Amino acid sequence: MYRLILTASLFLFFARSSYAQDWTNTEIRKANTAAAANYLTEEEKGVILYMNLIRLDGQKFYYTFLEDYIDKYNASVRQYRNYNELKISKNNSYYTSLLKHLQGIKNLPLFYPDDKLTALSRGHAVDLNRNNLESHESSNGDKFSKRLSKYFPNKSMSENIDFGYSKSLDIVCHLLLDCGVPSLGHRFNIIDQKYKLNIVGVSIQPHPSYNYCTVIDFVAQPIFYTNSR
Predict the structure, then answer these.
(1) Spatial CB neighbours of 144, under 8 Å, sequence gap ≥ 6
(2) What's the mean pLDDT in 137-148?
(3) Which residues have C-beta within 8 Å of that of residue 102, sequence separation ≥ 6?
């Protein structure tokens, strides 16, 4: 069963890119930690897959999947009059700084899905949709740390939220570039080494203002943690 799920996921995500051949089957299988997580959609599994590929080899991701994303994004906005403002150019400061951050990213510990954490991510994404919000705070005013601490007390944690995309590669690349976010907080969550974040919850939901929103929650569990799901 695991092999069938894995094969289906690999076909779905890597058939989209001309750079799939640059990654070995071993790398892809290793990164696909969410293959058997039946509480995730295929695109939600893909979010974890691509984040893990970044952690396996950041520079290779930069020159393969990220370039693929940028090419497709630039083609999609070419129709607009302000194309020169919308496009991501090679001298874009977020694009150039990303290479510096990814050059040293190699064989980092991977992210693993967690069903309880995913339920929390889904709850917040549904809340954002229902109340047309764009915030890490819930409609009742709770910060993400309060939401997560109920089930993961005294743990390091963080949260990424993306708006506008429904496809996993687009979501991950958008957060990784982090254009317009001076702190680069989304980027640093994905390539985290300081806080030892290692389990994730992911939920992609509709959103009234942005069409889609994605909530990704990160928690650091003890090193002996194993995910059997």
Answers:
(1) 124, 136, 137, 157, 159, 217
(2) 93
(3) 54, 58, 59, 61, 62, 191
